[in-house]
Amino acid sequence: MLRKLLILLLSVSALLAAGAEKVLVWEATSPKLPGKVFLAGAVHVGRAAWYPLDSAYDKALKASSAVYFEIYKPDPQQVIASCTRYGIFPQGKRLSDISGMDNFRKISNFMLTNNSPLAGEALERMRPWFLTIETAGMYLRKHPDLSQDFGFEAVFTTNIGDRPGFSLESIDLQFRTMSSISDIASMRLLMEGVNDFKSAGRDLERIMGAVTTGKTEDLTLLNNEIAFKHPEFYQKLFADRNKRMAGLIYDLMKKKQTVFVLVGAGHFVGRDNILELLREKGCTTIQLDKTGKKGDIRPR
């Protein structure tokens, strides 16, 4: 009888654990290393309704002595310089050379219809990867409820307190990585957005949905779709960067410290994700449960 009761209690506990709501934060430790890292999945734009965040985020942040971002407080002048350096064709090369005139006309009409300032010769000079960024900006301009001010990077930057902030990457590295994607591969991604602009909204909602639910299934499906349809894009923007960031995060665990790391949520799902790479190094990663209580992290 006692054995049956114990089995029943264990079964109930397992069901409760399986049903617990999560936040996009994982605790990473290693039996071989003295440090601990809290890994938080960021979304670059957000909604005011998300805040204040669940207090599980507060607990992880308060336990940490430093915060690492992909880029901490990016310098706008450096961003402009990198856009100019990597986002514009050299003299003698034009967008229509890559796209063909039929697709160039489609792109031009798309920009005009969506009130983009890029047209004519200015459009001809833009590399296709840079125009994929512009299409994302168009979507945000049409949806004022979405803002970078409510994205996790901006909010956590203003909630960092007296902790030091650091960058895992540089602005130059991020733009150089984007520009290393072939123009042909970038053109395929651009034309997908031009031909089905609504897909940007669908994909963004799938990403942002994970913030409120803590579930990663939609993020995994989205990353798998990208890897299948745009393998070069996925390899360079996700897989290669994941390996580099996982190495840096592992090095942080070599010191006796607890730190908070905030990078794009897509880096924690799909092939060669950061969590998987850390586990391959012998680390344990545990996703944190929601507390169900509001914390203090909110836009300032």
Keywords, separated by commas or semicolons:
disordered N terminus, single chain, six-stranded mixed β-sheet, 55% helix, 11% strand, globular, alpha/beta
Shape: globular
How are helices and strands ordered from N to C?
HEEHEHHHHHHEHHHHHEHE
For the largest beta-sheet, the strand count, sense and barrel status come to: 6 strands, mixed
End-to-end Cα distance, whole Å, is: 57 Å
Average the pLDDT over all residues and give the rounded result: 89
What's the short version?
The protein is of the alpha/beta class and 300 residues long.
Written description of the protein model:
By secondary structure, this protein is of the alpha/beta class. The protein has a domain at 21-75 and 144-170 and 196-289. Helices cover 55% and strands 11% of the residues. It has helices at residues 2-19, 55-62, 76-87, 95-99, 101-113, 120-124, 128-142, 152-158, 171-180, 183-195, 198-213, 217-229, 231-252, 274-280, and strands at residues 22-29, 36-42, 67-69, 165-167, 258-264, 284-289. It has a six-stranded mixed beta sheet. A hairpin with a 6-residue loop joins strand 1 and strand 2 (36-42). The longest helix is centred in the C-terminal third of the chain and has 22 residues, at 231-252.
